[in-house]
Amino acid sequence: MKIEKYQLETTNDGLKYFFDSIGKTTIEKIVYYQQFPSSIIIKVGLPPELEVYNLAFGDRIAGTDDFSDKMPSNNGDMEKVLATVVDTTFYFWKKYPQANLFLTGSSISRTYLYQKKIERYWDEITEVAYVAGRFDSQFELFEKGKNYDAFLIIRKR
User: Which domain of life does the protein's organism represent (predicted)?
Assistant: First the structure.
């Protein structure tokens, strides 16, 4: 993605990333990678032997290292925020090269937004990763124009 990105800070384990969204106001953001246990991997429709991390992000809750992904920020910098979140995946994969990323929105409209961004940046994404979408509780190779409720991003090795 050739979009300007925000400067990142990270934890030593490479599982949390922090940055400021600067638009109408300044909003602290957190990107968090959390490994799924095999019971959850099976529940989301994947083979239990996969190393899968949930990619989540949102607005930092003041005074904590936690965040909320429920309310839209409407800060006027969505493209830059999403490009920054995507940028964290490259740092994350340096520490966890076998990791696969699970992504879904906190609402149907956010999941749809992620799908549209995957479609828009398809050429850049497929240079570094394979994309699967979950449809009817099963993952399949991503098809443009088909509505999915979750995504699996598999880094090309």
Answer: Bacteria
